[in-house]
Design goal:
The protein has 143 residues and is α/β, with parallel strands linked by helices. The chain is built from five helices and six strands, in the order E-E-H-E-E-E-H-E-H-H-H. The longest helix has 20 residues.
Length: 143
């Protein structure tokens, strides 16, 4: 069978209003950021499936008190979402910093874990995060 496989990744995160204020009390408050679903759908054929990454780095993924799975953007397109990967909320000054540093250096988990220049604790934390993410990917219904 000669079939085309299309896939897209949609990253959804909450982020603060302009000015970088991370406080929920900010006058601009938190906003959800994600690519507009109709725009994404229009760029891929009808058979394309999506993997959604929920990233709570800037705050919980909620809009009007609803979690992502209750939002209209998801419920209207549920059939096209093959997996939802939930990035765990990481302790900012340890796990979060380690993952952020790794990503800023454009390293893979394997590259970072092989670096002798990283402390044993940093590598252990990255190994734990890798395990959490990869276990979700292993159970995802993606070809």
């Amino acid at each position: 069978m000669n079939a085309r496989f299309w896939a897209a990744t949609v990253r959804i995160t909450a982020f603060p209003g302009r000015g970088g204020d991370r406080s929920p009390a900010s006058p601009l408050g938190r906003r959800l950021y994600f690519c507009t679903v109709p725009v994404i759908r229009s760029q891929f054929p009808a058979e394309a499936l999506f993997v959604v990454w929920l990233n709570p780095f800037w705050g919980s993924i909620k809009h009007d008190g609803k979690g992502f799975e209750q939002m209209k953007a998801y419920t209207a397109n549920k059939a096209r979402v093959s997996a939802i990967v939930k990035i765990p909320a990481l302790k900012e000054d340890t796990y979060g910093r380690d993952l952020s540093d790794m990503l800023q250096e454009r390293l893979t988990f394997d590259e970072a874990l092989a670096m002798d220049s990283l402390t044993i604790m940093t590598r252990q934390r990255l190994k734990i995060v890798k395990g959490q993410l990869f276990s979700q990917l292993d159970s995802a219904a993606v070809l």
